[in-house]
Specification:
The chain is an alpha/beta fold and 372 residues long. Helix content is 43%, strand content 19%. It has 16 helices and 15 strands. Helix 5 (115-146) crosses helix 14 (302-311).
Length: 372
């Protein structure tokens, strides 16, 4: 491997992708790159990735690195931790094999993550998966005891948007959120539900031509432009009332309501819809599996488990619905439509004298031109 490019540094990948320019080399410190982060880096068309942490540690089968390699993006792992101190945004560096070179000097080295090495690491995760599952279940049950107030009752903030007896669509920017959102576009257009964007889920709604009615979350992954779109803003706060996201909202000159609660922002979005009388709650892009939560850095899914118990039959999870049925237009159907459309045209021609005369004139002209 040998390439040259300008670097862009970022400890948190989801913040870095907002600043990346096509063709730059992303310098990150992301242990176990998840699929959502991988897709974001692919969209930015980065030239290469230098990771100060292992992109796949072997803890669980995270598939982000595989997506990056499939997209043809070279990766160097486990680079020296002081690389951030040796580089600035915009520096020109050269990568030769596993070495990073600046001003003709080797400043760091790491491990090239190729397809063969990746498959070996993924195979190793199978040995750890059972142990991780046991830990995950134990943590889920432990936290469920602490967060049971989500079931027994929690203070829900008063909101301006009326959800009573209405359909509510909650969009989370989780794995495969685009495919799942595309699968329910017809539902959105026909039903016109209340749209709730959970952090970056609001950006996803706007990306597909919809305006969110409510934005809820800790405000760490939504863009300033979408945050200022006019939607009602609800900031997810810690149970003790601390809300780091509120400062960002206030800095933009916006107003928001606080929702102190344990769990994830998508959990409280479902609770809000349920407690405010939504008739149906449709969730897109949510996190539901152990891998989903491990990728978010959470050791369990207690709040999600409890919330889904509470909202019960009102919830329809659209995750994976895009795989349920994929419409394909077969050539024979196209031919049948064309034939059917020609029938009325042929019928009109057969009974129309002016058209008969026009056809005769065209035939005469053709004969003259070709010499018959």
């Amino acid at each position: 491997m040998q390439l040259t490019g300008k670097v862009r540094l970022g400890i948190k990948t989801k913040k870095l992708v907002k600043e990346l320019v096509e063709g730059e080399i992303a310098v990150i410190a992301h242990r176990d790159i998840d699929q959502l982060a991988a897709e974001s880096l692919i969209e930015k068309k980065v030239k290469a990735i230098i990771n100060l942490n292992p992109s796949i540690s072997g803890k669980y089968p995270n598939l982000g690195p595989r997506r990056l390699l499939e997209a043809g993006i070279p990766m160097i792992d486990n680079v020296e931790k002081d690389l951030f101190e040796k580089l600035n945004n915009g520096d020109l560096v050269q990568i030769i094999d596993n070495k990073i070179i600046k001003d003709k000097k080797i400043i760091a080295a790491g491990e090239v993550l190729n397809q063969q090495r990746l498959e070996i690491k993924l195979e190793q995760t199978k040995e750890n998966l059972e142990e991780e599952l046991i830990k995950f279940v134990d943590n889920t049950l432990d936290y469920a005891k602490k967060e049971k107030e989500l079931i027994l009752g929690i203070d829900i903030p008063n909101i301006d948007t009326d959800l009573e007896n209405k359909d509510v669509l909650i969009v989370v920017r989780g794995k495969d959120y685009r495919q799942d959102l595309e699968a329910v576009i017809s539902y959105i257009r026909e039903t016109n539900p209340i749209l709730i964007g959970v952090d970056g889920g609001a950006d996803a709604l706007v990306e597909y031509g919809f305006e969110p009615d409510i934005i809820i979350g800790d405000m760490d992954s939504i863009s300033d432009k979408i945050l200022s779109c006019g939607a009602e803003i609800i900031v997810h706060a810690y149970p003790d009332g601390r809300a780091p996201g509120m400062k960002r909202v206030e800095n933009l000159g916006l107003k928001a309501k606080l929702f102190p609660a344990p769990g994830t922002s998508e959990d409280i979005a479902m609770l809000l819809a349920y407690e405010k009388g939504a008739e149906l709650i449709v969730a897109v892009g949510t996190h539901t599996t152990m891998i989903d939560f491990l990728e978010k850095g959470r050791p369990g899914m207690a709040s999600t488990f409890l919330v889904r118990l509470k909202v019960g039959s009102r919830l329809v999870d659209a995750k994976g619905v895009n795989k349920l049925y994929q419409s394909q237009i077969k050539p024979k159907y196209v031919a049948e439509v064309l034939i059917a459309s020609l029938i009325p045209i042929i019928a009109i021609i057969s009974v129309s004298s002016p058209i008969h005369q026009l056809i005769k004139l065209i035939l005469i002209k053709l004969r003259i031109n070709i010499g018959f």
